[in-house]
Design goal:
This protein has 548 residues and is of the alpha/beta class. It is built from 20 helices and 9 strands. It has 2 domains: 319 residues, ABC transporter transmembrane region fold (Up-down Bundle), CATH 1.20.1560; 205 residues, Rossmann fold (3-Layer(aba) Sandwich), CATH 3.40.50. 35% of the residues are buried. The structure holds adenosine-5'-triphosphate. Keywords: ATP-binding, Membrane, Nucleotide-binding, Transmembrane, Transmembrane helix. It is a multi-pass membrane protein.
Amino acid sequence: MKSLLPFVRLMKSHLGWVVLGSTLGLLTLLSSIGLLALSGWFIAAAALAGVSLASAQAFNYLTPGAGVRAFAMVRTVGRYFERIATHEATFRLLAQLRVWFYQHLEPLNPARLKHYRSSDLLNRIISDINSLDNLYLRVISPTLIAVITSILVAGFLAWVSPMLGLLLLICLCVAGFLIPWLGYRLASGVGEAQVSATSQLRQRAITYVQGMSELHVYSALDSEHAKFVQEQKTLTDAQLRMSLISGLTSGMMAWVAGIATLLALIVAVNMVQAEVLAPAWLALIMFCVLASFEAVAPLPVAYQFLGKTRASAANLLEIAEQTSDIHFPDGSVEVVHPGVVSFKRVNFAYAERRVLDDFNMNVEAGERVAIMGHTGSGKSSLINILARFWEVQAGEVEVGGVNLRAYPESQLRDQFSVLSQPVQLFAGSVRDNLRLSGEDVSDEDMLDVLERLGLLDMLGSEGLQREVGEGGSKLSGGQRKRLGIARALLRNAPILILDEPTEGLDEATEKQVLEVVLTYRPTQTLLMITHHDLFLDRFDQVVRIGPQ
Ligand SMILES: Nc1ncnc2c1ncn2[C@@H]1O[C@H](COP(=O)(O)OP(=O)(O)OP(=O)(O)O)[C@@H](O)[C@H]1O
């Protein structure tokens, strides 16, 4: 249960709605019980009063009639507002949970998140967070309502007869504690299996859809489909077992309610025979006992799904409790020499994989540097280091004359414009993608750089509104790359880092692109990772990484 505590604490900020929803729920339920009990008494008492003219005339129809109407109105109006309040509370809690989760996820650098697939994270954000709406709506609020209602109704019956009160309390305890506990025990493993099966199925579905063309080409659709069906079956099996448990606990609940009513009837009939209870009270007691089970009826299902809710909570906490090992200080630093980059005796490894060993590089402001080396030698790792996605194990890295570790995050990001590999484009228009380089970038600047990179034809009649598709799927590989270069060029930062900007381009386009890269911002420092030696003579330095 410890895993649920942080989520219970989150409710504090919406305590008003939470308390209002539960109070209205309690009021509605008590009105419902009162309505049934009073109506039962009223009909029975009126019928008995009708036996003789004198008793019929003496019978007070007005007060109980008004009571029935009052209970009916409170029940109807209460139910309406209870739904509004509990849903408002639930949606507010869900919204807060999503933001809370994202706030914990966002600072985790790629080094922390590399063990998680993006589809797994997506599943946690959607499915696991949704499961947590069970906690307030189906567990906490109904439990509170059930406890208070049981005490009040059993107390009322105890006032009529202590025996009746005790009897109802015992039956409500069986229905409200024992049966939910049984449901919880039976379903605890199944709920966890359901959470895991849902996650697996969603991950499989995402991979399946994303890799559809490859699966077609390699004729692997059937085998992938078979795995998909198997995972669907695992989920359906878990759901079926959950339904069987629900059926079992609902049946037991109806059974206990029936037994309680029968026992109450026996006690009440004896009291009527002993003339300690008016006959019309028989109906009141019967309806009161029957209706009181409405309070505990939602509990077995709620507790049955508690295992699932706990598993979801554990999934979320697993991410939320991680702390980034990379800390950015607050405040600001004075960038002494904008555009300068230096690596001094740097050692760097991904876990046990050594990449840079005693690596040195000095780049002056405005210099153009080509970074070359065999594939896998660690060229792209320089970007990971400069962006502080990963930390170096030894040595010093300075940007603008300031140690990388002294930079607040946003100030560090302001030092670079980066074209990474592969280029990440977002579903949206060309303008949306270029806008990432700065809110103040004008359409004219965008069109100018696109023209220089030979991309105007790509825009067609739609211009900057041209949609690029999911990940740039509506563009060719070369267009994607050049659009990424355009975005990097448009961002006015002291240092431009391009990771293989001309990879996959034909020679003429490669020349055109390099020309733009080398002339677009003449005073900007350029670090260009490349495998090609085209235009190397126009670079101030060539840095080679790894064995030559
Ligand atoms: N996130 C990571 N976790 C573990 N190892 C990694 C990670 N990223 C890269 N590597 C490994 O580090 C080494 C250097 O990778 P890097 O991407 O820096 O090489 P590169 O020189 O840019 O290669 P290429 O020219 O093929 O792009 C490679 O052996 C690679 O397998």
